[in-house]
Amino acid sequence: xxxxxxxxxxxxxxxxxxxxxxxxxxxxxxxxxxxxxxxxxxxxxxxxxxxxxxxxxxxxxxxxxxxxxxxxxxxxxxxxxxxxxxxxxxxxxxxxxxxxxxxxxxxxxxxxxxxxxxxxxxxxxxxxxxxxxxxxxxxxxxxxxxx
Length: 147
What we know:
Strand content: 15-25%
Mean pLDDT: 94
Shape: globular
CATH architecture of the domain at 14-63 and 97-139: Alpha-Beta Complex
Order of helices and strands: EHEHEEHHHEE
Strand order of the largest sheet: 5-2-1-6
Number of strands: 6
Number of helices: 5
Helix content: 25-40%
Low-confidence stretches: none
Structural class: alpha/beta
């Protein structure tokens, strides 16, 4: 018995649509990160990109629990003194709601060169319209939320 190692050029990639409407950001992000890495496939190999493409729609209708809209902050700086800027999740959603989903998924991927390549396969849109209809993406159903 030999160990199977997937090869990057032999991987068959599918397109998935994930609807983020009325879903928690973290739940959607873990699902998207697993699909992007290919952990939902039997041929998963950690050092090879075996994942699929993911289109996340309705990012402007996603939810955060508790008071995270005001408490969660995103930071950026340019390495000059006094250049740090901060933005709350509510401000980020108002400016660009796809940023929140992108950062959540990026944080759930491993920090290596492969993850920079993997995150490029995620496309996110604030509304239900997207320009990827030609790829014939399938709808990925998330588990229903518990109340």
